[in-house]
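TICKET: design request
STATUS: open
ATTACHED STRUCTURE:
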């Protein structure tokens, strides 16, 4: 059975890097997903062989809207993907790219709701809770490299700064009333990417 929700809770979000998921462990992971009864699933590193099956992991409930998937699954096994079982404002698909990437028209065309460029695997989407639009971003920052002064940590900091700037632009626009960011920050060297 799903764990009981606090009556004051509006929604439940689960963030999980499923790296290392094997066919042998798949059924157990699916049971966990369904038992958690989340409204939002923010996943990193969905294996390519699971890309076509990922939607079957989700709990079914006639009381919630149909699940929406945001982000590309299984790209080199490092994609950051979100599933939302909450209402999605249709106008968001047109508004998000220009607000997140105002100076990148080519990227707006090719990654309509993407938070990512070539170095920041991620996705962004909007959900509605209690009449408020909430921007949800799931990400997977540059992996490995435990040297606090090394190039991989600098890359993670740059990625975190780009994401932070995009979220600030979104809030300043007034189109979203809140932001939720989750995913794998890969804090193997310092906490700086999270602190940003």
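STATUS: resolved
RESOLUTION: sequence designed for all positions
ATTACHED SEQUENCE:
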């Amino acid at each position: 059975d799903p764990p009981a929700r606090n009556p004051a809770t509006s929604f439940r979000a689960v963030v999980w890097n499923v790296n290392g998921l094997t066919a042998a462990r798949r059924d157990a992971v699916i049971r966990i997903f369904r038992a958690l009864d989340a409204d939002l699933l923010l996943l990193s590193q969905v294996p390519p062989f699971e890309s076509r099956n990922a939607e079957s992991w989700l709990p079914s409930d006639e009381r919630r809207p149909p699940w929406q998937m945001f982000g590309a699954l299984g790209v080199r096994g490092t994609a950051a993907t979100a599933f939302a079982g909450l209402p999605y404002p249709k106008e968001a698909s047109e508004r998000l790219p220009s607000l997140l990437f105002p100076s990148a028209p080519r990227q707006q065309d090719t990654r309509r709701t993407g938070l990512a460029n070539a170095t920041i695997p991620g996705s962004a989407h909007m959900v509605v809770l209690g009449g408020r639009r909430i921007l949800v971003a799931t990400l997977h920052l540059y992996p490995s490299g435990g040297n606090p002064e090394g190039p991989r940590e600098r890359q993670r900091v740059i990625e975190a700064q780009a994401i932070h700037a995009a979220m600030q632009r979104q809030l300043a626009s007034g189109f979203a009333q809140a932001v939720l960011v989750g995913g794998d920050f890969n804090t193997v060297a310092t906490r700086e990417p999270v602190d940003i």
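CLOSING REMARK: DSSP finds five helices and seven strands in the chain. The beta strands are 13-17, 40-44, 68-70, 80-84, 122-129, 132-140, 178-184.
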